[in-house]
Amino acid sequence: MDEHLFGAFAKFEKNQKEFERVRVIYKYALDRIPKQDAQNLLKNYRIFEKKFGDRRGIKDIIFSKKRFQYEEKVKANPHNYDAWFEYLRLLESDTDAKTVREVYEIAIANVPPIQEKRHWKRYIYLWINYALYEELEAKDAQRTRQVYQVYLQLLPHKKFTFAKMWLLYAQFEIRQKNLSLARRALGTSIENCTSWIKFAELETILGDFNRTWTIYELAVGQPRLDMSEVLWKSYIDFEIELEEYEKTRNLYQRLQRTQHVKGEEYLSSVYGGFSKKK
Description:
Layout: H1 3-15, H2 19-32, H3 39-52, H4 55-76, H5 81-94, H6 97-108, H7 117-120, H8 124-137, H9 141-154, H10 163-175, H11 179-189, H12 193-205, H13 209-220, H14 228-241, H15 245-257, H16 264-277
């Protein structure tokens, strides 16, 4: 396509005072001609909108200019993830879902060339933002699940992983009331009690106590956990805070029946103090 041809066509319609047709011609051409080959056309479109356009037209011009700038940035350095974040934020603000998804797919294809965790810390946020876009903006639960699952398969787990991604995926499945997939994700990835506790504390802060309870139940059911007595104590403290004293007693009785004897003396002193009060 030749920008000069579209420029002449737009000029003709402008002389006929067919301003809406002029706008359609410019937009059609700018959507199809590579930005680096359409600089004169873009310049003339800006002049046209400033003279004949409304607020929306001027906004479209600014949008096109910024989009071109971001496209040039990521073209120059495809691993400039901050540029991808800004570019995608722009598109999400004023573009259809199909376009946003296409650019996300291009962005996530730029996998860090080195399998070292420090090189992946910014990259994972492309996937996080992609999943959040599908869930919160596009309202597409199936695509959200696919984004999480593809990324978790992509991670070089033998070298490193990101507990954050597993937690976010599990939280998504809990929101979908799909506890079996949440259990599978968390059971596969989290062997650290601190991560479980932070996960539960987050839901407590958000005021969703049923979800907090679900997380604790998932956690204490895991067969391999380091410092499991800390997790049990956190669960007990949660029930005490809610003044669920009968549940607290039941938890302590359950704990006594498990093999989690490390720190039992400490837990006994804690529960003993609670019993004296209650």
